[in-house]
């Protein structure tokens, strides 16, 4: 049976789909998967051994430049890639109108969430097979239930991993060989950022025990990383890396600290001991999923005295984060 998965973005959403693929492949060994993913994240599905082919799509870019996309022939090429393989089933794991639009371009039945379960209920009108999956549960479990319903197998009672092996990812040369921790400080929403003054304290504290590596994905993140590392002998700002190189860096780390960000989900998928920091968001439905993970939620701590922004993190001090990271690293050994 050949199945096409439509789960285009974001990084965390794609990572959350991997356990469902692991479980489906275990339940149905003859199953083969292809996957439609946004071009920025297309590396990730290919890391899973059950995924044969990834079809990149550029909906985000095409929406910004529709005429250019049409003239370039990219949309036509994408349609050709969808038509190049006969599929027995398409699973829309996203439940959005944009993903349903893609799924219906394939000459195969489409399975997805029903009206009450989809993130955008109108998307369910485009599916031939619709399944009720309660929304008040973690995204990983929702996707596992959807795949199990669509492919007719029983959910496994044990924990299911993401199908990624840390040892499969090469450590990039700039990382070096001495023990290190990775601080994943970048996120898209301003109110999810851990205060920079707290990051700086955490860097200084961690640098007494490990090298501290700071990746970045854009100019703003690079400038922040440079400020955090400035004057700290054992801290380093990494060069620009692709996702595979970042994964190799995270996989080789003793531990990681992350805000609510896609790379935090990647760290969890790799099983790297990590502490994820949540301010205005909650890990209950979309938290980092994987082995050796710990959550610290700002709402669980009384407000601190420090004048930091976002103020919600004031009680989540660097000392608390460092103690939690040390415990996570020790427990994983």
Automatic annotation (TrEMBL):
Key words, A-Z: Cell inner membrane, Cell membrane, Glycosyltransferase, Lipopolysaccharide biosynthesis, Membrane, Transferase
Location in or out of the cell: Cell inner membrane
Domain of life where this protein originates: Bacteria
GO cellular component, one term: plasma membrane
Pfam families membership: Glyco_transf_9
EC number: 2.4.99.23
Assigned protein family: Belongs to the glycosyltransferase 9 family.
Protein name from the UniProt record: Lipopolysaccharide heptosyltransferase 1
Naturally occurring in which organism (per UniProt): Microbulbifer rhizosphaerae
């Amino acid at each position: 049976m050949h199945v096409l998965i439509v789960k285009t973005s974001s990084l965390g959403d794609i990572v959350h789909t991997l356990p469902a693929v692991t479980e489906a492949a275990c339940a149905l060994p003859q199953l083969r998967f292809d996957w439609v993913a946004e071009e920025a994240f297309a590396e990730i599905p290919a890391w899973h051994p059950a995924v044969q082919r990834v079809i990149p799509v550029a909906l985000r870019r095409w929406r910004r430049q529709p005429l250019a996309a049409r003239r370039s022939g990219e949309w036509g090429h994408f349609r050709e890639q969808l038509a190049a393989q006969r599929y027995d089933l398409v699973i829309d794991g996203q439940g959005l109108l944009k993903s349903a639009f893609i799924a219906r371009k394939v000459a195969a039945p489409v399975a997805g969430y029903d009206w009450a379960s989809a993130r955008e209920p109108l998307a369910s009108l485009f599916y031939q097979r619709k399944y009720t999956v309660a929304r008040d549960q973690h995204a990983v479990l929702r996707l596992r239930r959807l795949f199990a319903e669509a492919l007719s197998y029983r959910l496994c009672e044990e924990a299911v991993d993401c199908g990624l092996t840390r040892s499969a990812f090469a450590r990039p040369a700039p990382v070096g060989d001495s023990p290190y921790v990775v601080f994943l400080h970048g996120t898209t929403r301003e109110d999810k950022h851990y205060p920079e003054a707290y990051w700086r304290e955490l860097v200084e504290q961690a640098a007494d025990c490990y090298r501290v590596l700071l990746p970045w994905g854009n100019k703003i993140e690079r400038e922040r990383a440079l400020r955090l590392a400035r004057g700290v002998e054992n801290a380093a700002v990494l060069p620009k890396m692709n996702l595979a190189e970042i994964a190799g860096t995270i996989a080789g780390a003793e531990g990681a600290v992350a805000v609510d960000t896609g790379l935090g989900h990647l760290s969890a998928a790799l099983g790297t001991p990590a502490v994820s920091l949540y301010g205005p968001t909650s890990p209950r439905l979309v938290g980092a999923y994987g082995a050796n993970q710990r959550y610290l939620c700002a709402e669980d701590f009384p407000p601190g005295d420090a004048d930091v922004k976002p103020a919600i993190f004031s009680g989540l001090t660097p000392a608390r984060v460092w103690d939690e990271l040390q415990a996570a690293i020790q427990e994983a050994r």
